[in-house]
Design goal:
This protein is of the alpha+beta class. Among the domains are: 111 residues, Beta Barrel (OB fold (Dihydrolipoamide Acetyltransferase, E2P)); 115 residues, no CATH class; 75 residues, 5' to 3' exonuclease, C-terminal subdomain (DNA polymerase, domain 1); 88 residues, BRCT domain (Rossmann fold, 3-Layer(aba) Sandwich). The chain is 30% helix and 16% strand. It contains 27 helices and 27 strands. The protein has a six-stranded mixed sheet with strand order 5-14-13-6-1-12. It has a five-stranded antiparallel sheet with strand order 17-16-15-18-19. A hairpin with a 2-residue loop joins strand 7 and strand 8. The termini are far apart.
Length: 888
């Protein structure tokens, strides 16, 4: 192990007056402002603060446009954290602070500071009053993986490591942004990103344009909803983990500004960043962050969230303004949601952020009336707090804290608590206080964001490709609790790895009730020293993944027993073994027929990042591969997926199991919970017509219909659904775009595969190895026989589009309506494969519009602008032969 390098620290500047503003993004208080019974708050009322004078805001009085707002984005699966939540004046009255609380005085026009026990006398629009926190509070520190670069590392070895790091980071991003799942903790992800950043600094020639260190969030290309391009980019934030790092960052920012600055602090909400676009006061779109430039259009779903106005209050609104904020589940609503998930036998959400994302990104398409009602009810439990603006060249405000007052005046939901504090010590006290009192907040938080308050300095300090230099996120260490270790069970996943899981007495930690946690492998169990029956210490790594830290040895009573790793697969009885020399993990080698592995692969096929078959979730995958009835599963392997019929589904009964541990879920009487997900009893009307016996349920009919439609999904989705190691959406898109067909991919050499940007030798080897397995080839053959489309229509061949620019090079095409022979995504893929730009809206820069039935307003706009409109047959000619062939 290489010695840990002590990070260099910049010397601090001489002490001088520095002021900071702190904003708490809390849910609106349930206590009315005038209520006599309202509980006393340790934080007094914030009042409006004065606009900066020339002395405080710098020499320039020219109005400054705010830099791109760093919205509250999730921090899982990337090294940047989201920006803060919004804030407005809090309606509570000031309370008396204890003697050991230090007041944090705001910007003020007064020339003499009040003493700690003095009562300020704000005049008119005075700044926020004292912010008491315990002066003795110690700011918690969260350890972080620091990677050091071996200067003797060769360029070849460094390139190999960069490639492996990029693959692991992209896999984590794909899981987080495309499937709303978390596969590694924040600390692990930050360690990977830190190592990659160090390698790229040492070997700059290894940094590609699409490196994770240069990109924000998920992919810009959207698949669930139509893409929306943000008028102004949505950035993320960099992280700090200790008081020292926070102070160093503040000193650097102040040094760059060349003068004293004012700061704004706010709590980080565990939710989903959303961009609201208002035109002359009317809401026209709502979009997710995406990659910071392009997000998903979730406008229709956002309209169901209470508190988001369709029209802004007041008058004189700008022609265009973007309002950034965070959508989240309050703690109580999140608990109710997970209770409902458990009752229905569905997977519970790991945290409120995943729940908010999964709820907001639901599709209404294909849902019946009852399902739509349930979907809208869940959306109605969401809340939103807004925290910033974008795409407004000259807003009538000069400070971030004034933005909150403006947003509140427009009737937008804003945070209710924020403070102005004096100096970095005040910020650290603020952070420490809410680290100790985070459960007093009505939603989950995982840190505090500190921003430069003056908007003029946002432009001066600028931003990197991912994050502004005028803001930072301090992350709290994970919360720890004690609970009882009831058992350790072994579960087998879709890759065959046998993973021990700790089964515990339910305990609440970091926002959700935890019942089990992975122990990774038998060596980890031994290293942690836990025995079955121990009282153990539990935390959520990064406030997401439950992690067992170790036992409380003092509480042992002699009844505890050690864990013994089974020698055989608990699902199929095949002897477990290490797949190669030196492997710690044991795996089940029966990849083809092990029921747990087949179930995992089938569930992956239906996931959002693969074929996106909504009806093929956890319960459906288990029913198809591990039913109680019939004795022989409809899907011994995934090869028969596209051959399924309604008759195959109707008889199925399945025992509901926990998704991670595989343990049976029980009814209140202790019997196994059994479901028949694909059948129903005849209705009264059907019985009158003589219908008898079980009938196909709506979910069964929907599953068959969605499987049928999936046959023509884009090639990259088919590639992901094949479960090839390392081939996620990013690599699959690269392969599909370059080769255009599965036959071309299979015929390519290792060198030809590795040369594709975004692939490389590791993924190339994985692809070639996959096709060497006979039952893998059987999957492809059976899917092809069932009608699965393994080629992109109109693709000119391997590398042809990239080499020639494609027949649509330089052209912008909009596909709208139902085009015969193409799905919506397929039409977009065909345009891209031919070298064109697949736009989502019609403008004067559009060259062609392909329109089918249901084209609607896009067709009308194209006709009004005089843009050539094509039918499906002409569109096929366009993407195959180019525009010249249209007139032949």
């Amino acid at each position: 192990m290489r010695p840990r390098r002590t990070p260099l620290r910049r010397p601090l500047r001489p002490p001088r007056t520095r002021r900071f503003t702190c904003v708490l993004a809390l849910a609106p208080s349930p206590w009315p402002a005038s209520s006599a019974s309202r509980p006393a708050s340790p934080w007094p009322v914030p009042l409006s603060r004065p606009k900066p004078t020339a002395a405080t805001a710098g020499a320039s009085s020219r109005p400054r446009r705010p830099a791109p707002t760093a919205g509250s984005a999730p921090t899982r699966a990337r090294s940047t954290s989201r920006a803060s939540e919004s804030a407005t004046s809090h309606g509570s009255s000031a309370s008396t602070a204890p003697a050991d609380w230090a007041p944090c005085w705001p910007r003020s026009t007064a020339t003499t500071r009040p003493t700690a026990d003095a009562t300020p006398e704000p005049t008119g629009q005075a700044a926020a009053v004292a912010c008491p926190v315990r002066a003795s509070a110690v700011l918690p520190r969260l350890g972080r993986v620091d990677a050091d670069i071996d200067t003797a590392l060769s360029l070849t070895d460094a390139a190999d490591e960069v490639e492996q790091l990029t693959i692991r980071i992209n896999e984590a991003r794909d899981a987080y942004y495309e499937r709303d799942t978390v596969i590694i903790s924040d600390a692990e992800y930050d360690g990977l990103m830190h190592r990659l950043e160090e390698l790229e600094r040492t070997y700059p020639q290894l940094q590609s344009q699409d490196s994770p260190t240069l990109t924000v969030g998920g992919r810009g290309e959207t698949t669930l909803f139509a893409p929306v391009e943000h008028a102004e980019r949505m950035l993320s934030l960099d992280n700090v983990f200790s008081a020292d790092e926070l102070a160093e960052w503040a000193a650097r920012a102040e040094a760059s500004a060349g003068r004293a600055v004012h700061w704004l602090c706010e709590l980080k909400i565990d939710g989903l960043a959303i961009n609201l676009r208002y035109e002359r006061g009317r809401l026209v779109s709502a979009a997710t962050r995406g990659d910071g430039r392009v997000g998903e259009d979730v406008t229709e779903n956002v309209r169901f969230i209470p508190g988001i106005p369709a029209r802004l209050a007041g008058e004189g609104h700008p022609a265009l303004v973007e309002v950034r904020g965070e959508v989240f589940f309050p703690t109580a609503a999140f608990d109710d949601l997970n209770a409902h998930q458990a009752e229905a036998g569905e997977r519970e959400f790991a945290n409120p952020r995943n729940a908010a994302s999964g709820s907001l990104r639901q599709k209404a398409e294909g849902k019946n009336a009852a399902q739509l009602e349930l979907m809208h009810a869940r959306l109605g439990r969401l809340q939103m707090l807004v925290h910033g603006i974008g795409a407004w060249p000259n807003p009538p405000v000069s400070a971030q804290s004034e933005v909150y007052e403006l947003l509140r005046g427009w009737g937008l939901p804003t945070s209710t608590r924020y403070r102005v504090v004096d100096g970095i010590a005040g910020v650290q006290e603020f952070v420490a206080y809410y680290g100790e009192h985070r459960h007093s907040v009505e939603h989950e938080i995982d840190g505090v964001v500190v921003k430069v308050d003056e908007l003029a300095l946002h432009d001066e300090l600028g931003a990197t490709s991912r994050a502004p230099r005028w803001a930072i996120a301090y992350k709290y260490p994970p919360e720890q609790v004690n609970t009882k270790l009831l058992d350790i069970v072994v579960s087998v996943g879709r890759t065959g790895r046998a993973t021990p899981f700790a089964v515990m007495e339910p305990v609440r930690v970091a926002g959700s009730v935890v019942r089990q946690a992975t122990l990774h492998n038998q060596d980890v169990v031994k290293a942690k020293g836990v025995l079955i029956g121990d009282t153990i210490v539990l935390r959520k790594a990064g406030d997401v993944i439950p992690e067992v830290l170790g036992p409380v040895v003092e509480l042992r009573d002699g009844s505890e027993r050690p864990f013994v790793m089974p020698a055989e697969c608990p699902e199929c009885g095949t002897p477990l073994r290490a797949m190669k020399e030196g492997d710690i993990d044991l795996r089940c080698p029966n990849a083809r027929a092990c029921p747990a592995q087949v179930r995992g692969r089938v569930e992956h096929i239906g996931s959002r990042g693969a074929l996106d078959i909504e009806a093929l979730g956890e319960v459906s995958a288990a029913a198809l591969t591990q039913p109680r009835v019939p004795a022989e599963p409809p899907l011994p392997t995934e090869a028969g997926l596209f051959d399924l019929t309604v008759d195959d589904l109707t008889p199925i009964e399945v025992v509901v199991r926990d998704a991670e541990t595989g343990l049976e879920k029980l009814e209140e009487d202790g019997t196994a919970r059994v479901r028949a997900p694909f059948r129903r009893n005849p209705s009264a009307a059907e019985k009158k017509q003589g219908v008898v016996g079980p009938q196909p349920s709506a979910s069964g009919l929907k599953l068959i219909d969605e499987i049928r439609k999936a046959k023509t999904k884009p090639l990259w989705r088919i590639l992901v659904s094949l479960n090839i190691r390392h081939v996620g959406p990013v690599a699959a898109r690269a392969l599909a775009d370059h080769f255009g067909s599965l036959d071309a991919i299979r015929a390519a050499s290792r060198e030809e595969l590795a040369e594709v940007e975004g692939v490389g030798p590791i993924i190339a080897d994985a692809v070639l190895d996959w096709f060497e397995v006979d039952w893998h080839r059987d999957i492809v053959e059976r899917w092809a026989a069932a009608g699965v489309q393994f080629a992109t229509p109109g693709h000119p061949g391997p590398g042809a589009a990239a080499a020639s620019g494609g027949v649509l090079a330089g052209l912008t095409v909009v596909a709208t309506g139902s085009l015969e022979g193409f799905t919506r995504e397929g039409a977009q893929e065909a345009i891209i494969a031919a070298g064109g730009k697949a736009a989502s809206s019609v403008s004067k820069n559009t060259d062609f519009v392909a329109a089918g039935p249901g084209a609607g307003s896009k067709l009308a706009k194209a006709e009004a602008l005089g843009i050539r409109v094509l039918d499906a047959a002409q569109f096929a000619v366009l993407v195959t032969k180019g525009p010249a062939a249209l007139d032949e």
